[in-house]
Design brief:
binds zinc ion; SIR2/SIRT2 'Small Domain'; 12 helices; protein-malonyllysine demalonylase activity; zinc; binds ligand BV8
Length: 252
């Protein structure tokens, strides 16, 4: 459910102030989560009713143990999500950020695996939790893009090099995040003049720790989320609106 707060005085005041913070900044960091893709028809994780975890348990689907137990089921779940992502494509929020990158130095740090920031034209994107359009071998180093023909099917694929099961190149619970993405995130945050946190419930670590650190520091933080999160009371500017509304408003 998306709030439309365009007529709300609080929203307009916060938008003015956030816009000022952004216009002063040269180096901007965006930390994004599932909410930015919600309006592309990609379900979020933790929201009641519509969130993926309302219907499935994370341990049942997004863990190495679950994959070892029932790879067919996990593959089918990721195939289904790829279908939704391909159908939806980037929305006005993703496009606004790509536009912002043309006038600012912008680093996007995302927990999303959908690739929609890049599909909208954003180029500097650090993917903390991997990418659903890639797969890798569960045993050796072999990795590849998921071929479009297979992106729709359900059959798990075996590694061309060693015969072990291929798996989505995604970070599951209990797994390490890619070091390159974490290093890029830390470096960009250390230099940022303004941080935009959009569409994340700020509950999954270590990604949420990046937000906590930004909020504790002196750099202005703008949060875009129709719902409150654990950091909402502590950010400098809070835009209680959907990403497809607030990001174009902010960048305009
Ligand atoms: C690890 C990928 C080290 C699969 C996902 C500290 C304390 C407690 C626990 C831990 C801790 N540190 C680590 C842990 C354990 C765990 C963790 O954080 N657990 C939490 C839940 C308590 N973390 C890990 O296991 C991480 N690894 O720590 O490794 C290690 C390793 C070995 C041994 C020792 C240490 C790995 C975490 C990766 C998990 N992977 N899934 C997949 O995608 O299939 S998690 C999943 O959550 C997604 O990937 C997603 O990216 C991520 C974050 O969720 P959000 O993006 O925030 O989405 P959510 O649904 O929660 O919220 C959506 C928000 O959008 C809402 O706020 C909503 O209001 C808003 N919204 C809705 N509509 C809109 C909107 N906003 C704007 N516009 C809209 N229209
Ligand atoms: Zn292999």
């Amino acid at each position: 459910q998306v709030l439309d707060v365009s007529d709300d005085d609080d929203y307009n005041l916060a938008l003015d102030q956030a816009g000022e913070a952004l216009s002063c900044a040269g180096r901007v960091v965006v930390l994004s989560g599932a909410g930015i893709s919600a309006e592309s028809g990609v379900p979020t994780f933790r929201e009641a009713q519509t969130g993926l975890w309302a219907r499935f348990s994370p341990a049942d689907l997004a863990s190495p143990e679950a994959f070892a137990k029932d790879p067919e089921r996990i593959w089918a779940w990721y195939h289904w999500r790829r279908t939704l992502i391909a159908r939806g494509g980037p929305n006005a929020g993703h496009h606004a950020l790509a536009q912002l990158a043309e006038i600012k130095s912008l680093q996007t740090i995302t927990q999303n695996v959908d690739g929609l920031h890049q599909a909208a034209g954003s180029r500097r994107v650090a993917e903390l939790h991997g990418n659903i359009w890639r797969e890798r071998c569960s045993e050796c180093d072999h990795a590849r893009l998921v071929p479009m023909a297979e992106a729709q099917g359900d059959a798990p694929v075996r590694c061309r090099d060693c015969g072990a099961m291929m798996r989505p190149a995604i970070v599951w619970f209990g797994e390490m995040l890619p070091q390159t993405a974490l290093v890029a995130a830390d470096a960009a945050l250390a230099e940022a003049d303004c941080v935009i946190v959009v569409g994340t419930s700020n509950q999954v670590y270590p990604a949420a720790a990046l937000v906590d650190t930004a909020v504790a520091g002196a750099t202005p933080v703008i949060e875009i989320n129709p719902q409150e999160t654990p950091v909402s009371q502590h950010v400098d500017h809070r835009l209680a609106a959907s990403a497809s509304r607030a990001l174009p408003d902010l960048v305009a």
